[in-house]
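Type II secretion system protein
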Amino acid sequence: MKRGFALIIAIVFVVLIASLGVLAMILSTTASKQSADMYVKDQVEIYAKSFTEYAVLRLLTHDFNTGCLDEINGDSKTYAATKLKLNAKITYYGKIGNCTGISLTGDNKNPSSGTVMIDVFVTNDTNKEILPIRYHKRTLQKL
């Protein structure tokens, strides 16, 4: 009787230790995944901010007498952990050179004339990644 009871206690003890080991593995994998997700999120936000500044630079150096600059595309090349596609769509308010954007009051003496709205989208190649990334940043800039 004592041997049978000791065997049952030993089996329960082994099952309990194994359950704690599985729980520890699950928690460590979850923490690791969350750390990786936070890293990718920070990286995407930095790329969006950087590409917004690049779009403003392109707008400031663009000759609006030759035409409008409506869209700028780019990618992260090999610097990112995941390959990111960058896209900036530009909306004009008022008249800038030959570009006539959305009129706010109908006259070109409006203080908002020469303002642009830059929508930056950062996405990844969804065929290669488990979770798709899509980040949007909107900026208003006076030129």
